Amino acid sequence: MFSRILKWIDERWPLTPFIRLALEEDMSGGAGYAYVFGSAALIIFLLQVVTGIWQLFYYVPTLGEGYNSLNYLRTEIPFGWLIHGLHYWGANAMVILVMLHMSQVFIWGAYKRPHELQWITGVILFLLTMAMSLTGGALPWGKRSYWLVEVASSSAGTVPVIGDMIKRMMLGGGVIGQLTLSRFFILHVAILSGGLMTLAAIHLVALRKVGNAGPWDEKEREKKGPFWPDQVFKDGLAASLIILLLIALSVYTPPPFAGMADPLDASYIPKPEWNFLFLYEVLKFFPGPLEVIATIGVPVVGTLILLLLPFFDRDPERRPGRRPIAMTGWVIVVVGFVALTLAGAYSKTEGLEAGGTSASAPGPAAPAVLSADAKAGMDLFKSNGCAACHRVDGTGGSIGPDLSGEGIKGRSSQWLGDQLRNPKSHNPASIMPSFATLGDKAINQQVEYLQSLKEKVAATASAPAGAVAVATSIGLQGGPGMAVTIIGSAEHGAIIFAGTCSSCHGPQGTGGVANPGSKDETIPPLNPIDRDEFSPEPKVFAEKIDLYIQHGSRPEGPNPQVSMLPFGDTNALTQQQIADLEAYILSLNGVDRAKINHPGLSPGMFFIITLFAFLLVGINLLGWWWFWGVGKRQKKEVDK
Amino acid sequence: MEEANTPVRNRIESTRRGFLQWGTGILTFLCSLAVGIPLIGSFVGPAFRTMKTKWIKVAEVGTLPVGLPISLMVADVQVDAYVQESVVRHLWAVKNSDTEITVFSPICPHLGCHYNWNPASGHFECPCHGSVYAPDGTVLGGPAPRRLDTLPTKIENGELYVEWKQFRSGTSEKIPV
Question: Is 0.80 topped by the overall pTM?
Fold first, then answer.
């Protein structure tokens, strides 16, 4: 029956020759585990194609909905968490596998005649893999995505003469926008991936045309072994183990919820994906006008060397021991790549170094000369969250007046001290909380710091009347804001909280800050939060606290000194930042904003079942292998 | 090399090949299951979810005319998967008294067209396939399999609220989707 169907097809389409081309080959030196990387990269690429297409059932490439649509897949669609996880970790695996494959080919000298074309297509496949990794990173439109696009396009912009043109073409305009995301999207899902498929086919046909290079030892090469099933089994075994590993990674280290892209959020410190960290480090060696050497020079020269390698290394010698220059070069490249990547991974960014320990919170830059007291005052300014409301030198909130030029306004130190101790002494409508609890010493340091601020306030940056105007519009009017539809990053929310909220709600929201004149006498803690505001359902919980963050609230009581400010209504925080804060406040109360509502099967259970199935098959195969080993021993006995 | 013990050699070689072929097949099958079941699950899962419903504030009861069907356009915020947007819902309301109001879904139960009120005949008429309904929703003619779908209503503080729902078309039973 089967052979009749095969015959019927063969008369109309060359199926049997096609299968023969794919499977029937006598490999020089026989099958080997050293050759599994290329085929594993191919299999993981196919996994990327399938999971990528599946994500497109849910993902849309728009600025407003891209981030939410991906997270809808991850939290609301059965096994969406796994499909995205496999794609994310599969992408990393592909980069690693391609690098390992290239290393194997290089060490074995397998790029030499007649394998030049295979090597060249391989180098282009490597570049396409890196480009896929880059463009794919933009699509979730999280915070990292945004900065990745910014840095990648700006790097291209450093090319002499045509840089700006290239940057504009990448972005689809002068600045990052919807057209940018569309471009990265279509490059990722159609052009680059289509190129990868086509080139992979050419790469494989070349393999069949010239055969595998085999071992570097000439004698070993003469031994022949079949590709099917010997090599295919080894390839399959390697790919199965990698897939099992990818599932484990998706279950136990899922991709982060980075928070929605937010160009206004300066407290986020971007770093590239690991496979571009080396370039990020190289960048630091070439400051100023030399930057182009790192952004363009290093990648272009590196690519050219790789592409031309089989042409300037024409010596047919393939034994690594007889190719000292090539081997030294390989070691230098690998050590350099690993060292730069590690340096990049562990380096603190410049922003962090300049600002000190808590500088990830928005805070002012240090003026050139500062007395010890003023310096202490600056630290207090940061740790007490003053920057949540007050702007200094361009960073900080806009609810209170800009303090950049406080020192040249002619206010006495006595006046400033009074303002800090009792803000209502100068303006009865002031919503600024009292900082009398800091003590006289700290207040004097704070005043010293304020008097040191001599920068002229830019006309647009100051909003002195804002505070009073805001005070009249506090209250829970209006519904939840856009923030509640966004799954924020709890991790980043912690940073925003430390800079903006902890001065009133206490470190990690533990409370303990007094609010005289209110019914409770204290500002409510958020950790744990009032049970009326709590809900185990993340969305419901977020909606409850969102009303306070968006619109503010005036506490009950005769004359509360401090009110919750309307951070959303005043745009003191962006909706993305509010979403991050909500994720953080939920996490303080044991609720995961990114809870998977429809997992299909819980990740842990899925992994246990998969692992069990793999173990079962593995044990059976081992048993079979042992049985065959017995046969082999029998053969030896018969041979005797 | 092949002169002695050929049957034994052949048996061993075919066992070895069999092991590798079956092993490859089983591993492929296993990986296909591990990836395939989730893929199917993600595709099928959301297709069978019941629509979430919610109450929409429609109008002040006092402003609605008595006896005559009235077409109402009501603003609503729709959460459809990951898209949250303002939409307008169309409803037909027939008020018999201040406590008794019938609200019809604007969708013809036959094949899902939007029907109209014909003031001349005093009937609801569907332009697609000619179904005709009385003001109380009963079928007067045409292919309609059931009467017009009523929506759940409630009156609070003189305001009419409607629970927006959709129903399967073409069936004689009213089945929510």
Answer: yes
